[in-house]
Design goal:
The complex is a heterodimer of chains A (about 220) and B (about 400).
Chain A lengths: L20 E2 L2 E2 L3 H24 L12 E3 L3 E3 L6 E4 L1 E2 L12 E6 L2 E9 L4 H16 L5 E10 L5 E9 L2 E10 L2 E9 L9 H8 L2 E2 L6
Chain B lengths: L1 H22 L13 H53 L7 H35 L1 H8 L4 H19 L7 H28 L7 H16 L3 H16 L8 H19 L1 H5 L3 H43 L5 H7 L3 H9 L3 H24 L6 H15 L6
Helix pairs in contact in B: 1-11, 2-3, 2-5, 2-6, 2-7, 3-4, 3-5, 3-6, 5-6, 5-8, 5-9, 6-7, 6-8, 8-9, 8-11, 9-11, 11-12, 12-13, 13-14, 14-15
Classes of the chains: A alpha+beta (about 220), B mainly alpha (about 400).
């Protein structure tokens, strides 16, 4: 039962042989770590930098209609750039339109998003306000002033309010079409109190649901 | 005759020492290695990712607390099951539990929040700019996630090898550590998806909205990140070569590409299946089955070396008559071999005892590995335990 094999001494993890030291570091660990840093740099710095240098070139042409999930559409003003969202009739192969679209013009950003919501437009605006306040803790964009009424070209009544935040101000509008809530938000880097641009109001009023619109 | 038997056991003991040396089995792993650059690299990227995820969690908790609590609880239970299963799969030349935790944290925080989240967003935006929004919606995720997320997870294994070069020795080690990296990635990503869903209905019905996502992620997760990373990391070990695993470049690259193809196919599910629920379900099930089939195949391909190590460690115990040849065969075989061994017993009591003896023999193998094959008190006790259970004697403690 005796064994002539005794365990060979092994130094602990972290021990560095004298011929493998470089400024105290284990030189064998430098190449794999630098490889990891190179990949991390490519993913976290290089790719976002390339993305930042390339602008969106998808410009709205007259007659374009943006479609979102649940047959929600709006008509962006010609000349604005589309940074997310797709035109009606040109949706993805899966057939499912996205639930958000954003168009931009110089410093103004106009975003429409849609989701299931049970309640009226005022309740939706309250819900959006409550969620934004909870997320931003008063430090982000938030609603100021009373809700007022806005009516779309389709005749749908919604609720609207002014919004303000760090260096950005604008308008928010909410509509509910048969259990589908729609939020439209336009912000720009302007002073508080300035009236929303006519283009923004036109786009808000163009929001509709269930219509085919111009394809 | 006695001399010949003694010489034979001595030879077997020497073969055992070689197997233990080569496999790294039973060695302690120390994470704190300030002279190892990989230690600092790991710490930097995991800490950055954890802080990024933590700050988002803290911000969103204020708005979506019920959904977040639900998601974290359910995914913790779900993750525990996969943790238990993966530890159970690693039954031959086991890796240290500490190394598995290190792998899990890399996948959960560094691969996701330090690397993939930035790379994915940028690449998706570039696809939208280059090929249009509709195209990006269909194929963007399929052509970004495999190229960003698989390398982000896989390079974690590079750091683990640099941190534990004497532990990560075989493609099977890569498979197991890859599975833990994938598990970490999946669980944290799932929690993030649940948070997004909580806000998807303007913050109303957040529990209902996130629950649907949680269920979908749990079902689809069976054949997702855990499988992809396991396959990718096994391939990475073949590509690099290790002391106990000769370099096989083509096999390594094929496995890594296979993981990326499976991942890409999963992310193109909506485009492949369209909006028909039946087609979606069919493609979903097909992709899960495909991932499970491939990972099972890679498991069978890589586990052989680990079983050989276990055999080398336990053959001297058979020669010493601590275990029988049948038990050695069952220990170093697959699930079917163990089951057949148990079923061979007459009566329920004998079958149960056969299972206990096998478990005690696995314990003995672990103790032998930790003792580097030496005849220590723990080893003698573990041997005695095998004999005690076989004889049906009561436990001494």
């Amino acid at each position: 039962m005796t064994q002539d094999v005794s365990p060979r001494f092994e130094p602990p993890d972290g021990w560095v042989p004298a011929d493998q030291r470089w400024f105290g570091l284990d030189r064998r660990t430098i190449a794999p770590t630098l490889t990891v840093f190179a990949v991390a740099l490519a993913m976290s710095v290089v790719l976002p930098l390339i993305d930042d240098t390339i602008p969106y070139r998808d410009v709205v042409r007259a007659g374009d209609v943006i479609e979102l999930r649940g047959d929600v559409t709006f008509v962006p003003d010609a000349g604005w750039g589309i940074t997310s969202g797709v035109r009606a009739g040109h949706g993805p192969a899966s057939g499912g339109y996205p639930d958000r679209a954003t168009v931009v013009n110089e410093d103004t950003t106009f975003t429409v998003r849609t989701a299931t919501f049970h309640g009226d437009a005022d309740a939706l605006l309250n819900q959006i306000e409550e969620t934004a306040d909870a997320l931003n803790r008063g430090r982000g964009i938030h609603v100021v002033g009373e809700h007022t009424t806005i009516v779309t070209d389709q005749g749908k009544q919604g609720a609207t309010a002014r919004i303000t935040g760090p260096r950005r101000n604008g308008i928010i509008a909410a509509f509910v079409f048969d259990g589908r809530g729609v939020e439209a938000q336009a912000t720009e880097g302007s002073e508080v109190g300035q009236e929303p641009a006519a283009a923004v109001l036109r786009m808000i009023r163009s929001i509709s649901s269930g219509e085919q619109g111009e394809r | 005759m006695t001399y010949a038997v003694t010489a034979s056991v001595a030879d077997l003991d020497r073969a055992r020492a070689v197997a233990l040396d080569l496999s790294g089995w039973g060695r302690d792993f120390r994470f704190y290695q300030p002279r190892n650059l990989a230690f600092w690299g790991y710490l930097l990227l995991v800490t950055t990712g954890a802080m990024s995820f933590g700050s988002q969690l803290a911000r969103e908790y204020n708005a979506y607390a019920p959904a977040i609590v639900l998601a974290v609880t359910l995914f913790a239970i779900y993750g525990s099951f996969f943790w238990w299963f993966t530890v159970r799969v690693d039954r031959y030349a086991k890796l240290p539990a500490k190394l598995m935790v290190v792998a899990f944290l890399w996948g959960g925080f560094a691969a996701t929040w330090s690397l993939a989240v930035n790379g994915n967003s940028a690449l998706l935006a570039l696809y939208a700019k280059g090929f249009g929004q509709a195209w990006a919606l269909d194929w963007g995720a399929a052509l970004s996630a495999p190229f960003i997320e698989e390398p982000a997870k896989g390079i974690g294994l590079l750091l683990l090898i640099a941190l534990a070069p004497r532990h990560v020795r075989t493609a099977f080690d890569g498979l197991i550590l890859g599975a833990f990296i994938g598990l970490g990635f999946q669980i944290i990503e799932d929690v993030a998806y649940a948070m997004t869903s909580a806000g998807s209905q303007f913050g109303s019905n957040q529990v209902g909205a996130s629950l649907a996502t949680i269920v979908l992620r749990m079902v689809s997760g069976v054949g997702a990140h855990i499988c992809y990373s396991a396959i990718f990391c096994a391939g990475l070990v073949y590509l690099l070569g290790r002391p106990a695993e000769p370099r096989r470049i083509v096999r390594g690259l094929l496995l890594m590409v296979t993981a990326m193809v499976l991942h890409g196919a999963w992310d193109s599910l909506p485009a492949l299946a369209g909006l028909t629920p039946l087609a979606t379900l069919g493609v979903l099930v097909g992709l899960i089955v495909a991932a499970l089939v491939v990972v099972s195949w890679v498991y069978r391909m890589t586990v052989k070396r680990e079983r050989d190590f276990l055999r080398d460690v336990m053959v001297p115990e058979e020669a010493r008559r601590v275990i029988t040849a049948d038990e050695l065969g069952a220990m170093t075989g697959g699930r079917k071999a163990r089951k057949a061994h148990r079923k061979a017993g007459r009566g329920r009591r004998e079958r149960k005892r056969a299972r206990y003896v096998l478990n005690a023999a696995y314990d003995l193998a672990g103790v032998l590995a930790a003792a580097r094959g030496a005849d220590t008190d723990q080893v003698r006790f573990a041997r005695a335990e095998v004999g005690r259970i076989r004889a049906g004697l009561p436990s001494p403690v």
